[in-house]
Amino acid sequence: MKKYKFLEDITTSDAAFEAYGSSYGELFENAGIALGELCTHLKHIIPKISKNIRIEKENIENLLFSFLEEIIFLKDTEMLVFSRINCNIQKKNGKWKLEAVLSGDKINPKIHKLGTDVKAPTKHLFKIEKLPNKTYRCRVILDI
Amino acid sequence: MNVNLFEKIDTAVWKLPKSYRKDMKKDVHFIATEKLLKDMEEHVLDQASNVASLPGLAGPVSVMPDAHFGYGFPVGGVAAFDLDKGVISPGGIGFDINCGVRLLTTNLDQSVVKPKIKGLVSNLFGAIPTGIGKGGLVRLGKKELKEVMVKGVLWAVSKGMGWNEDLKNIEAEGRIKNANPDHVSDKAIKRGLNQLGSLGSGNHFLEIQEVEAIFDEYSAKHMGIYNKGQVVVMVHCGSRGFGHQIATDYLRLFENAMGKYNISVPDRQLACAPFSSPEGQNYYSAMACAANYAFCNRQILTHGIRRVFSDTFGKSPENLGMNLVYDVAHNIAKVEKYKIGGETKKLVVHRKGATRSFGSGQEELPEKYRDIGQPVIIGGSMETGSYLLLGTKKAHELTFASTAHGSGRTMSRAKAKRMVRGEKLQRKMRKEGIYVISASMSGLAEEAGVAYKDINEVVKSVSLADISKPAASFKPIGNIKG
Fold first, then answer.
1. What angle do helix axes B142-151 and B278-313 make, rounded to 10 degrees?
2. Is the ipTM of this complex over 0.90?
3. How confident is residue B453, by pLDDT bands cut at 50, 70 and 90?
4. A112 touches chain B (CB under 8 A)
5. How do B28-31 and B61-68 pair as beta strands?
6. Residues 447-476 of B with CB under 8 A from A
7. Model pTM score
């Protein structure tokens, strides 16, 4: 199954992708990787620094939104981009909980090929859906 | 766009009546030549109609000739609201609060600069943080960042990173006064600590240009533009991750708060709150913090630019005549006075991808500009050129003193990256006499001229509509990008 693809005709001034997964966890991992791939070629990012994050939200859309916000936050505050992401998502007591381990490295303009500086996820056309084949797809437009 | 939907009410002014959709409360005025109007994406019409449905509008919504699809408001959208009955909407200001542009003069001729352009651009690229992963020239503690939020450019000047006379040549003197750091989240603060004095990426740039043509010699001289071939420097950037986080925080807050005020919007990116509500006022004061950060950011970059020019040409920036012509925001909300139904009222004017365009006689303008009007800078793509214009009195009547800000994208970044190779574009531009260094080759490809509207047609539109008048045009000779 494809992990993600970048969309060409959906936004003029920003970046957009679709990500896929056989579970919510895999969907979130692939969305995180798609975001990272916009910033730099992740194949050159050695996953040597890890960050654990925990987020809890009332619905799955807000959970994904906050997850992507957190990745951007770590990029800006600690200069990190993540090439390996593991997500565990559960619904408990009516709330959606995410526990994730993000592994990557600090961006080094001298050795990494730089892409786009992603600034924020947006709610425009933001969607998570379960497909007939029981896999998941999301669409995200990012402000850059 | 179907031109038949519009009524032409003046040269380059087209009215979409509020009867177009039953939820619209005001008309929408599109400022454009017929060519630009026809080529404008349909989404702009939908988004402008959405804006026209918001409560408390004081007059028609305006759409500028460089408009394209945005979040909530179209980029190139202007709307003014009554302070008591109207709303404030982060989507009407944009994620990059106070993304804006400034212009610096030099007394150098292109014949002196061009032989040194490679060294100059390389030195600028080395000195000015650009692109992802680079911290700013200035690292702040929390307390200092809060000072920046309140003092804006004054903070930079007090630290020796600017001249006193720079202050009056900046919109709001580089400091919007209602800023309150208490309404800025911890997350935004953390993002802002290490980015002050950085250019960013995307369509942000630091461009060295030469004067190509002078259309209004008297006004151009007042702005420090004397000769064809004179070298100037243009800087375009905003409030970095700091402003983006504030926008995200308040969009989330407003989405949840709208029910309290019985407001519903056709697009959740238009989430808003009454301007006079606690939420509205808190956002406005946080927006001002981001705006002041952006003004300060551009000031610190100016300090860096002056130093590089000084090192390259062996003279002080003062002796190089590196004066600030003007600095304008193009993503902002400002409280300004307008005549509505014979009465002067204060309104909150949202400009998203639009520039203020004050005509002559406005008290806020520095004395040297009071009889000619406010300098307006409209930046083109990195392959074409840019313009310096002046605000007009007509703009006050027609567009709440607003005009275009750039040439507007016509092609997605993904498509531009697919069509254009960054390295090939860089070589092409160098052959054409534009020496560009970019931190990201894919980023450079995204900014290819082919992805933008024709700047000359945009300037023609605003000039025909008389919302700003061209004073001079510039062509690029050097550029650094993130």
1. 100
2. yes
3. confident
4. yes
5. parallel
6. none
7. 0.96
